[in-house]
Write a structure and sequence with these properties.
By secondary structure, the chain is mainly beta. About 15% of the residues lie in helices and about 45% in strands.
Length: about 170
């Protein structure tokens, strides 16, 4: 089975699952899907995590029709409450991304959208269509030594698919 086919098969797991959250760690954007599942962290503490997650570091945008709700560039623009010392990837709440995601989170909570369709293109470009009318579009950069996106499962023994420089590897 080719790596592209494996990624397409794995990503189909998202279809029908609820989109639960979007946030960031520095300039890495994470999106979560599915129900919470039990998890033991690196300290041995028991907790729960969303069943599936997508981490994106390349260019992406969340759109509703022709309107962009939030996009990668928003990580690099000061938000409404940022000070003069704004730095991309800095404190949560300081970027335009944080402002826009806060508003989007209200809609996600109210509508509980599910993933209706997953498309993975030949260059690992990605499109997730949600039942709320939102669409996530991901555009890999294809730069060596730069991770474009990663698909993770919190289930035991499930592989993580990492897209980097026009190819994929299993972690």
């Amino acid at each position: 089975m080719s790596s592209l086919v494996a990624v397409r098969d794995a990503m189909r797991e998202l279809e029908g699952r609820p989109f639960s959250a979007i946030g960031r760690a520095a300039t890495l954007v994470w999106l979560t899907f599915g129900d919470a599942v039990p998890w033991v962290n690196f300290r041995g503490e028991h907790t729960t995590l969303p069943e599936l997650a997508l981490h994106v570091q390349c260019r992406w945008r969340l759109v509703r029709g022709a309107a962009v709700v939030v996009e990668k560039g928003d990580l690099y623009v000061p938000g409404a409450s940022s000070g003069a010392d704004f730095a991309a990837g800095g404190e949560i709440g300081s970027s335009r991304f944080d402002d826009r995601v806060e508003a989007a989170a209200w809609n996600v909570a109210a509508q509980a959208p599910a993933v209706e369709e997953v498309y993975v293109g030949d260059e690992f470009d990605l499109r997730l269509t949600l039942s709320s009318g939102l669409t996530l579009e991901v555009f890999p950069a294809g730069r060596s030594e730069w991770e474009d996106w990663r698909f993770l499962s919190s289930a035991d023994g499930r592989p993580h698919y990492v897209v980097e420089n026009g190819s994929v590897y299993v972690a």
